[in-house]
């Protein structure tokens, strides 16, 4: 299938930061995502106390929802504003610390300790920094990653997954010749070849 003119498209970190600054965040869902509620049983697979990763998390309300269920949530996001808004909107106290090994990165952690949000590029993370995860909720990450970086993104995600990890992925289907993205169109065949 033709991915149109999207293959070469690149959205810079500055552009993402600008979206947050301008409040141009139509991708944020105030009520949480209905597909996570519908497929939560697939993500949890009867398990409790999981470590769940939110790549490019923004200020996703589901992070608090899952933490309240007893899971440990880790997110990564380039916009510090997004992360601070998350804690403010949920009235969650947090502390901030630098991340050893990543210049300029910060970790914002709820004082309860069950939500840790990294402010840096996702590509700066590794399992030696964040550990491995039992579940991943990829609601707007793969479709936001620049098409030229998809392989790099998926390779990283695979290194962050425990053996019995569940990975919930939401994509969007549309004619890529009519919309330049993001969200980018990722055909099912490409998802299969990326994740194996």
UniProtKB/TrEMBL annotation:
S-adenosyl-L-methionine binds at residues 16-27, 56, 77, 121-122, 139. It is an enzyme of class 2 (transferase). It catalyses: S-adenosyl-L-methionine + a thiopurine = S-adenosyl-L-homocysteine + a thiopurine S-methylether. GO terms for biological process: methylation. One of its GO terms (cellular component) is cytoplasm. It is found in: Cytoplasm. Its main location: cytoplasm. Keywords: Cytoplasm, Methyltransferase, S-adenosyl-L-methionine, Transferase. The keyword Magnesium does not apply. InterPro entries: SAM-dependent_MTases_sf, Thiopurine_S-MeTrfase, TPMT. PROSITE patterns: SAM_MT_TPMT. Its EC number is 2.1.1.67. The lineage of its organism: Eukaryota, Metazoa, Chordata, Craniata, Vertebrata. GO terms for molecular function: thiopurine S-methyltransferase activity. The keyword Manganese does not apply. Belongs to the class I-like SAM-binding methyltransferase superfamily. TPMT family. This is thiopurine S-methyltransferase.
